[in-house]
Automatic annotation (TrEMBL):
Top-rank taxon: Bacteria
NCBIfam families the record matches: PHA_reg_PhaR
Protein known as: Polyhydroxyalkanoate synthesis repressor PhaR
InterPro entries reported in the protein's UniProt record: PHA_DNA-bd_N, PHA_reg_PhaR, PHB_accumulat
Designated gene of the protein: phaR
Organism, scientific name: Fulvimonas yonginensis
Record Pfam families: PHB_acc, PHB_acc_N
Length: 158
């Protein structure tokens, strides 16, 4: 059964209204929807414009300001450099696949850690690291091959 798309309306006063529970919610509650795997969209209450990305970016921004950030200034600078580049269209899907590979490996590591079966955690970690490295190399090779086929005469602006 397909999960119903939850609609959250954003009003001019920046308040968020969850139409499913008929109540105002906070950004932290939107974050919890993400953690819970809920499907939702944030829409401008007046125009109906999709504001989901900007709200998710706002949540990331707030969490980057607290504690230890995940996104270094160098990483953010590299991402910014891809905007307007001929390979911009490849970057989003590449990052999504990279993160999915990481999450899959993390889940596999946790499963293996729960059933050690005579192996030490270090040997399992080494084996997992080698497989993860192979997967990264394969994915990068595919990305570079696809980029070369799409834009053979274009070079990235420096």
């Amino acid at each position: 059964m397909a999960q119903k798309l939850r609609i959250i309306k954003k009003y001019p006063n920046r308040r968020l209204y969850d139409t499913e529970i008929s109540s105002y919610i906070t950004l932290e509650e939107v974050r919890q929807l993400v953690l819970d795997g809920e499907s939702f969209e944030v829409r401008d209450a007046k125009s109906g414009e999709d504001l989901t990305r900007s709200v998710l970016l706002q949540i990331i921004s707030e969490h980057e300001e607290k504690g230890q950030p995940m996104l270094s200034p160098q990483l953010l600078s590299q991402i910014i450099r891809f905007y307007g580049d001929s390979l911009q269209g490849f970057m989003g899907p590449y990052l999504e696949r990279s993160l999915q590979v990481f999450l899959d490996q993390q889940q596999q590591f946790r499963a293996q850690l729960n059933s050690l079966m005579g192996q030490t955690p270090w040997s399992m970690l080494n084996e997992l690291t080698e497989r993860n490295l192979d997967a990264w190399k394969t994915m990068q090779r595919g990305f570079l091959d696809a980029a070369a086929q799409t834009a053979p005469n274009k070079t990235r602006k420096g």
